[in-house]
Inverse folding.
């Protein structure tokens, strides 16, 4: 069986940043290849290369070039040409994108399956891209200029989602939103993660970590406020990790972090180095806006390394509360601060929570049953 996965980036391509969709696409592609599927991964790159290569059993087809406002229209032609040359049995694409429509259209034309995966709690909202533009801080004239473009993208996404043979949702919430907005029934499957072998000799240290892209939607300011509130917690070090292209925003964060002795801003962390951080951390903190994340890969990595979760807004599928994997404040910032302090005051409880996290994550996110289900959907 041939599978084509279409994306705008690849996890191990150092010319692009790291996001959750990349991580899941890579993990799934690697797992499918190990099960005997011929996996083709078609993706953009900022590198000057047209040479195809195979990495971890994944056949990579690079689309090189500098991206500009309307380059996605040109990219359509190249993606179609590569799909025509591969002739896959199944096309898979994850997240809301113009590629959703491209994959669905190609599959329908060639009587093949198109599987779309939602990647966030708002992924199945009807006018997500247009709404995001309207809520942005851009000037009115720029919004007016961009509106036709994002409106067209939303329309293409709608057509792609409606035409999908199968939709895979991360959470029950996404499944409900899919049915509400598209009258389609989705299949709920958890994110998949290849469990890295833990270094059992590495003991947990008094480290609290925040690791994501530095963006306003991720609200790293709330992590800084938590560090400020925990300055009397002796011996604890707060690590704020993540990169951004918004230098002004990054500098505004640095001004605040430079005033705190218990907080270090460590910048962008290469994906291959994140395991070491989670292995040492005693607590992982998520401060993303409500409904901004699906099942964050950082949650999964942290739990696989026995690191419990402190979340401001997000408890996917209610798992944190149901399985006692840490604490979710459900938007209550003062409760977030109180519970954060309480966790740091009780290292024995952190250790017990970490043990539960590791067991839960391995059985839920590293289960071969998830890959078995995907293979059934492909057939």
């Amino acid at each position: 069986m041939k599978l084509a996965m279409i994306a705008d980036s690849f996890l191990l391509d150092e010319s692009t940043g790291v996001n959750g969709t990349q991580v899941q696409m890579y993990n799934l592609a690697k797992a499918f290849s190990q099960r005997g599927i011929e996996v083709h991964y078609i993706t953009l790159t900022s590198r000057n290369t047209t040479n195809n290569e195979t990495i971890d059993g994944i056949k990579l087809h690079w689309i090189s070039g500098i991206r500009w406002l309307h380059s996605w229209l040109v990219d359509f032609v190249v993606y179609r040409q590569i799909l025509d040359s591969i002739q896959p049995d199944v096309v898979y694409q994850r997240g809301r994108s113009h590629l959703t429509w491209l994959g669905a259209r190609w599959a329908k034309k060639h009587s093949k399956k198109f599987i779309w995966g939602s990647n966030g709690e708002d992924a199945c909202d009807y006018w997500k891209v247009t709404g995001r533009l309207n809520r942005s801080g851009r000037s009115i004239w720029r919004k007016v200029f961009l509106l036709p473009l994002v409106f067209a993208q939303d329309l293409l996404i709608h057509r792609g989602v409606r035409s999908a043979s199968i939709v895979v949702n991360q959470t029950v919430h996404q499944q409900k939103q899919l049915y509400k907005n598209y009258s389609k029934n989705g299949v709920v499957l958890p994110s998949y993660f290849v469990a890295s072998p833990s270094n059992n000799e590495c003991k947990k240290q008094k480290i609290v970590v925040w690791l994501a892209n530095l963006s306003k939607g991720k609200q790293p300011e709330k992590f800084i406020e938590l560090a400020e509130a925990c300055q009397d917690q002796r011996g604890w070090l707060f690590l704020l990790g993540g990169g951004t292209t918004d230098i002004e925003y990054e500098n505004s964060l640095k001004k605040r972090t430079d005033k705190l002795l218990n907080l270090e801003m460590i910048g962008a962390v290469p994906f291959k180095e994140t395991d070491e951080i989670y292995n040492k951390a005693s607590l992982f903190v998520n401060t993303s806006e409500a409904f901004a994340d699906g099942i964050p890969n950082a949650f999964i990595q942290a739990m696989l390394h026995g690191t419990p979760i402190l979340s401001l807004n997000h408890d996917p599928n209610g798992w944190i509360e149901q399985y006692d994997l840490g604490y979710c404040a459900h938007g209550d910032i003062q409760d977030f601060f109180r519970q954060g302090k309480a966790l740091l005051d009780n290292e024995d409880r952190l250790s017990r929570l970490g043990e539960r996290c590791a067991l839960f994550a391995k059985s839920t996110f590293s289960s071969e049953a998830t890959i078995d289900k995907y293979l059934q959907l492909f057939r």
